[in-house]
Amino acid sequence: MKNLPFLFVFLFAIIWFSEANEVRNNTLTINDVFTYFRSGSSKEIARYFDQTVLLNINGKNGDYSKSQAEYILRDFFLKYPPLDFNVLHQAGSPGPTIFYVGSYQSKGEQFRVLIKGNSKSEVLRIFSIDIIKTKI
Predict the structure, then answer these.
(1) Is residue 35 in some structural domain?
(2) Which top-rank group of organisms is this from (predicted)?
């Protein structure tokens, strides 16, 4: 019984530090997202997703949960493995909303990528990704 307060404080500290670590791990930058597009890592990109994500891949679009969007993006990367990804343009005024236009290249295919998100409290949340095939 004497150790009960100590145990309570110990458990509280573990929970508090794990939540702080989670916030720190979510303090990711848009440059990380670009790196994950270059490597075709849908799992890592999904870490940035908002609770729901609007995906538009070659005209097939919909609102998806984080896990559904990760699965759809993974299928895209399997069908079109990445060769390169370059950022072409950053748009938007200073503030929480971000817009990026990029060029995704796969073997024999090229896509225009539009990433839209919010950056609140140093936490990036992507709410929309458009991936549209372009002519080479």
Answers:
(1) yes
(2) Bacteria
